[in-house]
């Protein structure tokens, strides 16, 4: 089944070029079916890039999905035009009376800030609190995962001596978990962050369970035992060039970045990286949509 997106959203044409089944609003209106309503709180600076990344994964599901885009009022984006935000995005005030099957909270490159120092932290906590009663299941990504673990369960982050960047091997803690259905016993996933969460802090919270981790990158997948909160410390949505763009940006800025681990062929940044984590990413999002959203949400929201 297709993913339903606004007719003029720029990501639509990119996804169609990749043979992702996209249905615009005008066609979807004629179908007698209730799509899953998924809201995306996009905290990333390059919002259009993140839209494409996430819609690519959501569009691979056999379920029909209707997407809503959310941004914060208390932060002015410097990298996305006001016209794009006005046309495609809403604020929490616009949607707080609605119910949603799922919510995705993206990452943000602000790990160096204390949570309370983030200029939209109060608004973000309001959204996370609202989600408890208005969303069936919430998926948190990278900094969004750290922020969610901190707000909901008091699990803090720790700054690392150097940036964790690259493609890392992960293993499964309990293959019987529904979120891990269809996973290989070892799989690859991207990470790009300056902060970490500690295993022992998560294990001290009875409501949480660690589902997957990496010897090099640490904890990767965490879920609340009721399935309403899913936390991913990496970036399964990244495409093959995202880490390269980050590396090139930092190199041009004179930051002397380290090469992303296990990413460029032969560790040569002039070579094109290969996409080796797409299968895992698609299965992860499909499992979340199926087992934690579709199977749990009421027909009448």
Automatic annotation (TrEMBL):
Organism listed in the record: Gracilibacillus dipsosauri
Which protein, by its recorded name, is this? Homoserine O-acetyltransferase
List all membrane-crossing ranges.
none
| Reactions the enzyme catalyzes | L-homoserine + acetyl-CoA = O-acetyl-L-homoserine + CoA
Q: Which residues does this entry assign to the site Important for acyl-CoA specificity?
A: 111
Report which superkingdom the organism of origin falls in: Bacteria
PANTHER family in the record? HOMOSERINE O-SUCCINYLTRANSFERASE
Per the UniProt entry, what are the Gene Ontology biological process annotations, in alphabetical order? L-methionine biosynthetic process from homoserine via O-succinyl-L-homoserine and cystathionine
Q: Where is this site: Important for substrate specificity?
A: 192
Which InterPro entries does the entry link to? Answer: Class_I_gatase-like, HST_MetA, MetA_family
Keywords (alphabetical) are: Acyltransferase, Amino-acid biosynthesis, Cytoplasm, Methionine biosynthesis, Transferase
Example of a GO cellular component annotation carried by this entry? cytoplasm
Function, please? Answer: Transfers an acetyl group from acetyl-CoA to L-homoserine, forming acetyl-L-homoserine.
Protein localization: Cytoplasm
Query: What would be an example GO MF term here?
Result: homoserine O-acetyltransferase activity
The entry's family comment says: Belongs to the MetA family.
């Amino acid at each position: 089944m297709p993913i339903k997106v606004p007719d003029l959203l720029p990501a639509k044409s990119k996804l169609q070029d990749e043979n992702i089944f996209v249905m615009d609003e005008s066609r979807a209106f004629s179908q007698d079916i209730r799509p899953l309503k998924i809201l995306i709180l996009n905290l990333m600076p390059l919002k259009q890039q993140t839209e494409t990344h996430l819609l690519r994964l959501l569009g691979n599901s056999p379920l029909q999905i209707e997407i809503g885009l959310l941004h914060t009022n208390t932060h002015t984006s410097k990298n996305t035009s006001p016209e794009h935000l006005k046309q495609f995005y809403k604020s929490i005030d616009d949607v707080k009376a609605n119910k949603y099957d799922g919510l995705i909270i993206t990452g943000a490159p602000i790990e160096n800030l204390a949570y309370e120092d983030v200029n939209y932290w109060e608004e973000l906590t309001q959204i996370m609190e609202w989600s408890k009663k208005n969303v069936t299941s919430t998926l948190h990504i990278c900094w969004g995962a750290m922020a969610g673990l901190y707000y909901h369960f008091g699990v803090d982050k720790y700054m690392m001596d150097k940036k964790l960047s690259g493609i890392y091997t992960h293993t499964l803690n309990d293959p019987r978990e529904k979120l891990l259905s269809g996973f290989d016993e070892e799989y690859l996933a991207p990470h790009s962050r300056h902060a970490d969460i500690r295993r022992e802090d998560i294990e001290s919270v009875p409501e949480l369970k660690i589902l997957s981790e990496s010897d090099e990158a640490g904890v990767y997948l965490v879920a609340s035992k009721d399935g309403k909160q899913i936390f991913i410390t990496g970036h399964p949505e990244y495409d093959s060039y995202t880490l390269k763009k980050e590396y090139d940006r930092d190199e041009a800025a004179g930051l002397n970045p380290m090469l992303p681990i296990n990413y460029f062929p032969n560790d040569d940044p002039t070579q094109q990286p290969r996409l080796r984590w797409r299968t895992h990413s698609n299965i992860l999002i499909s499992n979340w949509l199926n087992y934690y959203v579709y199977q749990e949400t009421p027909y009448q929201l």
